[in-house]
Known about the structure:
single chain; alpha+beta; Helix Hairpins; SH3 type barrels; 5-stranded antiparallel β-sheet; 3-stranded antiparallel β-sheet
Amino acid sequence: xxxxxxxxxxxxxxxxxxxxxxxxxxxxxxxxxxxxxxxxxxxxxxxxxxxxxxxxxxxxxxxxxxxxxxxxxxxxxxxxxxxxxxxxxxxxxxxxxxxxxxxxxxxxxxxxxxxxxxxxxxxxxxxxxxxxxxxxxxxxxxxxxxxxxxxxxxxxxxxxxxxxxxxxxxxxxxxxxxxxxxxxxxxxxxxxxxxxxxxxxxxxxxxxxxxxxxxxxxxxxxxxxxxxxxxxxxxxxxxxxxxxxxxxxxxxxxxxxxxxxxxxxxxxxxxxxxxxxxxxxxxxxxxxxxxxxxxxx
Length: 297
């Protein structure tokens, strides 16, 4: 009798476990099917539309950049505009996508705002750089391609970001200058004007005829094509040095020809002064050696 009851109990337990297992797998499968039929399809449609809209945004941004380039807009402006359109619109579309699939965007916005306040307190320097970047974009003291000097560095502006300005030095080093410091410091823009004045000083001996030296210097200036004829070169004695008469030469050149003319003038003046036997003084040191002979007693 007891054996029969145990057998019946085991049979009923096995049947109950099998039924529970069958019910659980069926429930999971049913839930998956329902999710795919509702949210899955919605998510898939949303992703497809999002990728299509991303491609449209890229196309719009490129079209705007192309139009601005054809109209001769500065590279700084159309580069920043292109980046703002491409990234800003994509961020907006992504937030719309989150709302479409049922994510509470208001809560996300509150979280982002709270995190932004906390981060802002921790990175005040970065916020200063951000504000400096906005000032540079607004005031435009320089543009991409200009040769500037600031923060003890000089070079060609390669790119302007919201936080840093990228300079390439003449020896091809990349320098990142924080926009906060850059916007609050003196900036020398060597490319802002189409022409620049080149000032050079040449020394001759007191025994030389300075009028002849001035004539040679003027001939050199007149013979160089890249020296502008107007304004006329200025050549006069600038000072009486300790061992020389100093003659200053001021000529105007196109900004892009500045360094080429500078080196060409130095080479040509040395060559012509040698040909004309015009002495270029240099510091000399006379050393006298005195020998003392001490007789030993």
